[in-house]
Amino acid sequence: MSKNFDLVVIGAGPGGYVAAIRAAQLGMNVACIDEWTTPDGKPAPGGTCTNVGCIPSKALLQSSEHFEHAKEHFAEHGITTGKLSMNVAQMLARKATVVKQNNEGILYLFKKNKITFFHGRGSFAKAVEGGFEVQVKGPSEETLVGKQVIIATGSKPRALPGVAFDEQQILSNDGALDIAAVPKKLGVIGSGVIGLELGSVWRRLGADVTILEGMSEFLPAADVQIAKEAKKAFDKQGLKIELGAKVSEVKTARTGVTVSYTNAAGEAQTLKVDKLIVSIGRIANTEGLNPEAVGVQLDERGAVVVDEHCKTSVPGIWAVGDVVRGPMLAHKAEEEGVAVAERIAGQHGHVNFNTIPYVIYTSPEISWVGKTEQQLKSEGVKYKAGTFPFLANGRARALGDTTGLVKVIAHADTDEVLGVHIVGPQASELIAEAVMAMEFKASSEDIARICHAHPTLSEATKEAALAVDKRALNF
Predict the structure, then answer these.
(1) Boundary residue ending a domain (306, 325, 351)
(2) What's the CA gap between 451 and 439, in Å, rounded?
(3) 142 and 263 housed in the same domain
(4) Which of 169, 270, 337, 475 could covalently link to 18 via disulfide, CB atoms 3.0 to 4.6 Å apart?
(5) Cβ distance 176 to 205 under 8 Å?
(6) Domain count, the chain
(7) 55 and 96 both lie in a single domain
(8) 196 is in an annotated binding site
């Protein structure tokens, strides 16, 4: 016998669980289905982000950064240590604890908001009178009927053609977060967020890391000036990044992995490593969803086709997050999830794609929101830009981390902030001010006139805004 709900959400990642909570707050009877499972068989809601993405990677980044600080920087603070060593097993155990806390937190929120959770894989069965039948298979075996359905099934890593992930030698983000011992040589294909973050983790712990990037530019989505500054910092750290590398073959053997490729000059090269992380992007996770049973349309990449309001080709079925167009970011999924829940309730949910921030949690951190200089040039938009280096920021000096800068770009005529780009300490936190400013259509003068506490890293944002008008005070 089927169980009936106002809304069924398939997937409990950032988009799905947040949509479920917002819908419950708005008075709907909500079910949420998710198949992630802990090693001991318990539910593990939170999707890729919580289980093998954002949360565990930040845990490892924090542990490895502590290790590098102790090794390289404690002495200058007058702190003397003995011989350092990294207990990788303990580091991974801490990561697992952090993940578990987040899993349990989501289950608590479901209970608090009276959301019915089903542990298993959700798939469409058919359209029925008054809604859609969804089958749950796995630890839970149920038939649900939802008046409305939100697809929030996320994404999965893209493999190299003919090179499957074995998570022992050929690693996705999942396996790269669970390496049992520091490899002597680690290869990474792809210098995007995952490649840079996980490459940084294992480099700090002593691995010789080489990143092969097929593009001729480093971080082409970022502002060119910021990307150059970041590349310079990574080079100095010993993170080897080879641009214009075209991989032709990957072979595995008992002794390791051999990658054959041509470099930017077209010369044949060979890279031999103990393990290889493949981070060449992600694809929509619609496997087993059975969308054809209800007529939901997918595009040529397997993503769910939606309009600007996240409506699919079938009235009453919606989709959010990585499984649809747009950036594959947890916070983008959350915003869409809230907006869709509100639209179902008859409200006017809104997502502004122009003010979605991007962050890479390396050291230095990289973040940005809005347009880059190269985008504005290509669009023929008149602009002015101001920059301020952390080298001239008192708080950064006290932290001992003066790498990088803040860049504010404003319209040449109206002074409206069009983009803010940061490379440096705590860039992930600093970008929130820029997002707020752009949401309220602030000018660079507005940011420059706001009092920022001293000494703080945020003063660099104020100074960069002042620099737009060539009146920075401390540089």
Answers:
(1) 351
(2) 19
(3) no
(4) 337
(5) no
(6) 3
(7) yes
(8) yes
What is the C-alpha to C-alpha distance for residues 102 and 107, in angstroms, rounded to an integer?
9
Q: Is 380 annotated as a binding residue?
A: no
Q: Is 466 annotated as a binding residue?
A: no
Angle at 198 between CA 276 and CA 214, to 5 degrees: 60
pLDDT in tens, 32-68: 999 999 999 999 999 999 999 999 999 999 999 999 9
Q: Which residue has the tokens 């359905």?
A: 149
Active site residues: 454
| pLDDT tens sequence across 145-202 | 999 999 999 999 999 999 999 999 999 999 999 999 999 999 999 999 999 999 999 9
Query: Across the chain, what does the average pLDDT equal?
Result: 97
Instruction: Report whether pLDDT(1) > 90.
Output: no
Question: Cα angle vertex 257, ends 256, 260, to 5°?
Answer: 150
The answer on whether 330 is annotated among ligand-binding residues is yes
* DSSP 8-state symbol, 321: G
Look at residue 63 and give its three-state secondary structure. helix
For the segment 239-255, what is each residue's pLDDT rounded down to a tens digit? Answer: 999 999 999 999 999 99
Same domain, 276 and 294: no
Range of the domain at 315: 3-157+283-351
Q: Are residue 94 and residue 56 in the same domain, yes or no?
A: yes
Is 331 marked as a binding-site residue?
A: yes
- Tell me: do 328 and 381 sit in the same domain: no
In CATH, what number is assigned to the domain containing residue 268? 3.50.50.60
Q: Is 277 annotated as a binding residue?
A: no
Per-residue pLDDT tens digits for 344-390: 999 999 999 999 999 999 999 999 999 999 999 999 999 999 999 99
The answer on whether 238 is annotated among ligand-binding residues is no
Residue 104 and residue 35 in one domain: yes
Alpha helices in 153-222 (DSSP H): 173-176, 193-204
End-of-domain residue from the set 317, 351, 385: 351
* In a domain? residue 163: no
Indicate whether 377 and 234 sit together in one domain: no
Tell me whether residue 475 is in a domain: no
- Write out the E strands in 190-324: 208-213, 240-243, 246-253, 256-262, 268-273, 275-278, 282-284, 317-319
178, 151: one domain: no
Q: Looking at the domain assignment, is residue 162 inside a domain? A: no
For residue 38, being part of any structural domain is answered with yes
Residue 408 contacts residue 467 (beta carbons within 8 Å): yes
User: What pLDDT shows up at residue 242?
Assistant: 98
